[in-house]
């Protein structure tokens, strides 16, 4: 009989986790390059000892979270008109050099540092074909071509690295809009760089709100179930434990 | 329950967003104002089950793992230094920069500031000053008897004085540019100052390579697009609302938990 409470508990914990993921998606509704996530659950089947007189196997299933999957669809592109705001159309990631090694991002909000290097919002250098990309004020208006080629008034300045991975669902989110991976990065074949644009978060608020209500109602149902179970136990104790009267 | 604090970070971020938009809209008619934009980043993730961990002895791998995010933070509020529109004023001391560069202003305490707002005027001593009365470098003095003052594309100021046929050259405006204009510190009063992230100023003359040209009788309007700002405002407001709904939902769940134990 206790199993019922434990099954309810497993679902309640799963609901908490779903809620956390939905909250994170909604909090990042305006984070450029953010990819929405969803929790996947699976059934965890546990075998029970059959009670005396019972035949056949007896099982009880719990709910268990098995993974958080990332929705890799493209976010919409919004125009910002900033010369160093870039978006990747198609599959591909920009490469930045951090203190912990190369990291990958779809957030193309870049600017220049004091040395004229193209950097992300945390000052990590954006990687071109030959390492950091350096732009001097003499280069005038900078143009990023779709293939990532950077040209200024004085000519070609380099080419941005836009890479792709065999399995980009397995990239690890690190925060700060960066992803890390042990997979080897290959030059992307279908990426096209768009200047003056940023890729919006791909979180769809309506769907997240619907999921939130769903999770909340499911939680409520389980909570009611637990209460009913508790009442059941209470009345069983009351009846069975009542003094015998003749 | 993490959802509460995650949604709170979302609300804080959207609040910043609305504040930035409000400031843009408030400065829609400020000469030389440059639109700002808030940039957000996701917070650190907690790896509960790392992707790629083994799911069985035979070496099968978990395809995605469990990573829980912790919300959002404002990474930067940056300035978009695109050219504003030119509006004609016909005032000889209104000058606009077409292209990149800033006017160099000397503050009363002797330090330097930079501006795109070219709504200048004359001081009691005849010097060209900003509307706060700060000297525009290099300090051009206009003779009191000048009949007309003209500024050419290269920023050369010349005046016609009675009794002289040829205009007299009084000086030349100086333009300053920075390796990273978006890193300048706005001090209010349409002025910017140098910061470590802007890099050091490089002075030049208008019209030289990489510097803009000067247009007399024009002012550069703010580069704020009101339609875009209003759209962003609606989005930000709705996002704020949705994050607050998450807080309500998480609170309801906690409430049910508390009641279960009762």
* Number of E strands of chain A: 20
How much strand of chain A?
25-35%
What's the total helix number of chain B? 2
| Gyration radius of chain B, rounded | 27 Å
Low-confidence stretches of chain B: none
Number of helices, where a helix is a run of at least 4 consecutive DSSP H or I residues of chain A = 2
Using CB atoms under 8 Å apart, which protein chain pair has the greatest interface?
A-B, 69 and 74 residues
Portion in strands of chain B? 25-35%
Sum up the overall morphology of chain B in one term.
elongated
Report the end-to-end length of chain B measured between terminal Cα atoms: 19 Å
> In angstroms, what separates the terminal alpha carbons of chain A?
30 Å
Largest sheet of chain B: 5 strands, antiparallel
Average pLDDT level of chain A: 88
Gross morphology of chain A: elongated
